[in-house]
C-alpha cells in the first residue's frame, strides 16, 4: 500500500472512531480519550528521554495523570464533587518525594518534565469532558463541532498553503507553514462556525465564532510548540501510533493548547 493510501486510510479510521465515540455518549467518549491521554503522556515521556532532556518518573506520572483525568471526568459527569480534585495536588507533591529515592541525575529536571507532561497532555483531554457537559447535560454537538473546526482549520491551511503559500509564518520552527495557508484556514473555519451555529444554535453565534478564533490562534501555536519540542530532540514524528501521520502528539497538537482556552470561553457563557 502506498504511503498516500496508508495515510488516507489511517486518517479516516481515526476520524471515524472519534466521531462515533462522541455520538455514542459520554462514557464512550470518556473511555476513548482517557486512553488517548495516557498514551499521549507516555509518548511525551518517551520523547523527553530519547532527547536526553530528562528522565521523568514515568509510572508515577502516569498514575498521577490518570487520577487527574478520572476526577475531572467524574466531576463533569456529576458523579463527584469538585473538591475531590484536591486529591491531585498532594499527588504532585509525591512526585518530589519519589525523586529522592531514584538517585537519577538532574532530579528537578525530571520532576519538571514529569509535571509538564501531565499539564500538557492529560489536562486538555480531561477538559474536553467539561466542554461537552458544561450545562449539566451531554451536548455532543458542541464537542463534535470543536473537533470539526480543528480538522477544517488544519486541512484548509494545508491545502491553501500548498497551492498559494509564499510567505513563511514561522520558518525557524516550521518551514512549511505560510501566512496564505493560515488565511485560507481562517476563512474556511469562520464560515464553518456560522454553519455550525445554524445546525446547533444553542451556545450562540458568539461562542461558535469565539471557538473558531481560539482554534485558529492556539491550534496553530500548539502545532508550532510541538514542532519546537521535536526539533529540540531531533525527531521528525513524536511517535508511530498512526501509519503516515506520526504519533498522538502530532495528531492532537492543536487540541492540547486550544482545549483550555475553549473551556474558559464556554465556562464564562
Characterise the protein shown here.
By secondary structure, this protein is mainly alpha-helical. It has 2 domains: 1-25 and 138-269, no CATH class; 31-132. The chain is built from 10 helices and 2 strands. A two-stranded antiparallel ribbon has the order 1-2. Helix 3 (58-76) runs parallel beside helix 5, helix 4 packs antiparallel against helix 5 and helix 6 packs antiparallel against helix 7. The model has no long low-confidence stretch (mean pLDDT 85).
- Separate helix tally: 10
Q: What is the ordering of alpha helices and beta strands?
A: HHHHHHEEHHHH
Number of strands: 2
Mean pLDDT: 85
- The geometry reads as globular
Strand arrangement in the largest pleated sheet: 1-2
Q: How many domains, as an integer? A: 2
Classification by helices and strands: mainly alpha
- Largest sheet, if any? 2 strands, antiparallel
Q: What is the helix fraction of residues, given as a range?
A: over 70%
Q: Which residues sit in consecutive blocks of at least 5 with pLDDT less than 50?
A: none
Distance between the termini: 48 Å
Specify Rg, calculated over alpha carbons: 19 Å
Strand content: under 5%
In short:
The protein is an all-alpha fold. 74% of the residues lie in helices and 3% in strands. The longest helix is centred in the C-terminal third of the chain and has 29 residues, at 205-233.
What tags apply to this protein structure?
two-stranded antiparallel sheet, mainly alpha, 10 helices, 269 residues
Amino acid at each position: 500500500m502506498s504511503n498516500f493510501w496508508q495515510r488516507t486510510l489511517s486518517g479516516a479510521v481515526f476520524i471515524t472512531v472519534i466521531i462515533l465515540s462522541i455520538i455514542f455518549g459520554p462514557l464512550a467518549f470518556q473511555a476513548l480519550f482517557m486512553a488517548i491521554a495516557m498514551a499521549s503522556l507516555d509518548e511525551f515521556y518517551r520523547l523527553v528521554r530519547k532527547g536526553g532532556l530528562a528522565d521523568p518518573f514515568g509510572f508515577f506520572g502516569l498514575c498521577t495523570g490518570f487520577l487527574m483525568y478520572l476526577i475531572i471526568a467524574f466531576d463533569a459527569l456529576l458523579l463527584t464533587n469538585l473538591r475531590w480534585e484536591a486529591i491531585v495536588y498532594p499527588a504532585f507533591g509525591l512526585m518530589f518525594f519519589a525523586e529522592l529515592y531514584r538517585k537519577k541525575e538532574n532530579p528537578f529536571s525530571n520532576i519538571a518534565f514529569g509535571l509538564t507532561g501531565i499539564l500538557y497532555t492529560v489536562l486538555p483531554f480531561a477538559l474536553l469532558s467539561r466542554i461537552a457537559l458544561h450545562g449539566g447535560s451531554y451536548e455532543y454537538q458542541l464537542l463534535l463541532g470543536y473537533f470539526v473546526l480543528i480538522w477544517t482549520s488544519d486541512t484548509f491551511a494545508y491545502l491553501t498553503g500548498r497551492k498559494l503559500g509564499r510567505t513563511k509564518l514561522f520558518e525557524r520552527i516550521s518551514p512549511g507553514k505560510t501566512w496564505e495557508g493560515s488565511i485560507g484556514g481562517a476563512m474556511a473555519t469562520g464560515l464553518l462556525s456560522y454553519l455550525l451555529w445554524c445546525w446547533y444554535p444553542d451556545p450562540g453565534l458568539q461562542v461558535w465564532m469565539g471557538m473558531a478564533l481560539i482554534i485558529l490562534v492556539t491550534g496553530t501555536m500548539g502545532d508550532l510548540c510541538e514542532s519546537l519540542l521535536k526539533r529540540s530532540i531531533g525527531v521528525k514524528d513524536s511517535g508511530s501510533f498512526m501509519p503516515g501521520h506520526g504519533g498522538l502528539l502530532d495528531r492532537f497538537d492543536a487540541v492540547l493548547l486550544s482545549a483550555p482556552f475553549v473551556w474558559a470561553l464556554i465556562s464564562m457563557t
